[in-house]
Amino acid sequence: MRHVLLIHGHPFNRSMWTPQVDALRARYRVIAPDLRGYGQSSLTIDRETSLETFASDCLALMDALHIRAFALGGLSMGGQIALEIHRQAPERVEALLLADTFAGRDTEERRQLRLMTAERLEREGMRAYAHEELPKMIAPANAERFPELAAHVMDMMTTTPPAGAVAALRGRVRRRDYVPLLGGIRVPTVVVVGREDVYTPVSLAEQLRDGIPGATLEVIEDAGHMPNLERPAAFNKVMEAWLRTTAVPQPR
Questions:
Q1: Residue 1: what pLDDT?
Q2: What is the Cα–Cα distance from 179 to 197, expressed in whole angstroms?
């Protein structure tokens, strides 16, 4: 059975991938963990969690499950972690899905905003922040049209441990630039983005597509930063086509 590892974004948890796990589980073994400091995963005493640490955690999990090779997908911060996993262990990645993410470093303005947000979350917790972020995470029209969707996204954000979110924000400030590494990706890659994504717009998705040899781009209409939840049928169709792009792997 083919193995698929899905990495959630910030400030969410593994339940972000529920529609995809449900759609794929009959044919694939899908692993969708809570990242360190998110959901039900614990956080060490460190005040900063780097993408390198998140990636190492995921690889250690796959080792513990005795899974050598896998298809890899990530959304937003999860997409950046997926790029770091590929950097650390390219021989283990059979195919790559990058959703609503970008490869470059933050601007200085964005780095400062992350640090300010981290300080705010330490003082205030997640609730006020989550209410402000909801219209950026999912398209406002979808929040109104699908109240259960909005409630799920809010629940993920408000139940994220502040310490975990803070550590990740600080770690992302110092992340490496993955743009120079894109040309070395040699596995079937699809880039997915919501048409209305305000955090990682279509132009950034196009940069990923253009930087990765042979990559394709799929734009999900009527969706924001979380097209896998806002338009799960369309997203799942893309994912299933992506998984068909490689043959069932031989033992390594």
A1: 57
A2: 20
Q: What is the pLDDT of residues 139-165, one digit of tens each?
A: 999 999 999 999 999 999 999 999 999
CATH architecture of 2-243: 3-Layer(aba) Sandwich (3.40)
Overall average pLDDT of the 20-44 stretch: 94
CA–CA gap between residue 109 and residue 81 (Å, rounded):
22
Tokens, residue 14:
């593994």
How far apart, in whole angstroms, are the C-alpha atoms of residue 117 and residue 186?
36
- Distance CA(172)–CA(167), nearest Å, equals 9
Q: Give, for 73, the enclosing helix (H) or strand (E).
A: strand 70-75
Return d(Cα 98, Cα 80) in angstroms, integer.
8
All residues at 6 or more sequence positions from 241 whose CB lies less than 8 Å from its CB, including other chains: 190
What Cα–Cα distance (Å) separates residue 133 from each residue in 58, 127, 198? 27, 10, 11
Q: Token match 């120079």: residue?
A: 180
* DSSP-derived 3-state class of residue 96: strand
pLDDT in tens, 188-243: 999 999 999 999 999 999 999 999 999 999 999 999 999 999 999 999 999 999 99
